[in-house]
Amino acid sequence: MHVSTTSFSHNFLYEIQNLESQQSALQQETTTGLKVTQPEDNPSVMDQVLNLQTEAGANTQYQSNITQIQSSATTASDALNSLQTLVEQAGEIATDANGVNSSTQLSTYATQVGQLVQEALQIANTQDAQGNYIFAGTDTASAPFSATTDANGNVSAVTYNGNTSVAQSEIARGLTVTAQNPGENNTGAGTEGVFADSRTGADIFSHLIALQQDLTSGNTSAISSTVGPGLTTDEDHVVTQISGNAVLQSTLEATGNVAAQNSTSIESQMSNDTSADLATTLTQLSQTQTAYQAALESGTMVMQTSLLNYLT
């Protein structure tokens, strides 16, 4: 069968260009270690890689959210434990004052409670490592509690200046949590207030101030009948807050571990999808180079033969 010189030339050039393209792609794999660098290299694999990159970005954001919330949750835990100790001390004073008639002793107790009120204010205005007030709701830039004092310098009232809202952060797909707590919530709905909440009857500052005033006036009957039970309610309320914080920290730890595992898994899968097998690539490159050289030699011989036939 006779094949025209023109037809052979076109086929020869096509084959040479195809082998050159294969060599270039294999050399790039050898240099970069990647078998996929452009969408056209392998559209289905590249689509999977892009999906994995999106998943990796979301997972990184989850890990960042978890770290930040853990910091605030740890700060809140320390504050709540200190608050529980403080309320316990106030309750002990209320118990010890029952039946005491000595004005001197009652005055000493009153002074101690006044110090507890000041300590409670410091706890209430706790800030986390980022400088956010943790008991202000979402108004984290301003101190949530302010005090009014009487002529003797004793705190006579405490005002909550925060709000009852909390900001949720996503720590896994479909799972949102918050480390924020309103310092006070008397709306009857939403997240419970730490220092006061109408649903539980907790009102720490009100009960502490009443205790100090009753001690000062010697009204021990009011302490045993009203203030003492109120402080018991406050302590139960704080214990509930501590339990909720513990659950949150446990959730954060477990979810953080899963996110870390996901990160490793995603990186491994992306590497498997895009990384070249160097040994296989080098073998293929050698085979392609051999085929390229053979094609050049064969083509040259054919072209020379055709030229001689033409001349003769």
Description:
By secondary structure, the chain is mainly alpha-helical. The chain has 2 domains: 53-267, f41 fragment of flagellin, N-terminal domain (Up-down Bundle), CATH 1.20.1330.10; 277-312. Helix content is 66%, strand content 8%. It is built from 6 helices and 7 strands, in the order H-H-H-E-E-E-E-E-E-E-H-H-H. The chain has helices at 5-32, 43-96, 103-124, 204-217, 220-274, 278-311; strands at residues 145-149, 155-160, 169-172, 175-177, 184-185, 196-197, 202-203. A 3-stranded mixed β-sheet has the order 5-6-7. It has a two-stranded antiparallel ribbon with strand order 1-2. Strands 3-4 form a two-stranded antiparallel ribbon. A hairpin with a 4-residue loop joins strand 6 (196-197) and strand 7 (202-203). Helix 1 (5-32) runs antiparallel to helix 6. The longest helix has 55 residues, at 220-274. The radius of gyration is 38 Å and the shape is rod-shaped. The model has no long low-confidence stretch (mean pLDDT 83).
Name the structural class.
Answer: mainly alpha
CA distance, first residue to last residue: 20 Å
Please mark out the parts with pLDDT under 50 across 5 or more consecutive residues, or reply none.
Answer: none
CATH architecture term of the largest domain: Up-down Bundle
Number of domains: 2
Largest sheet: 3 strands, mixed
Percent in helix:
55-70%
- The CATH homologous superfamily name of the largest domain equals f41 fragment of flagellin, N-terminal domain
* Strand order of the biggest β-sheet: 5-6-7
- Described by the principal axes of the CA atoms, the overall outline is rod-shaped
Q: How would you name the oligomeric state of the polypeptide chains in this document?
A: single chain
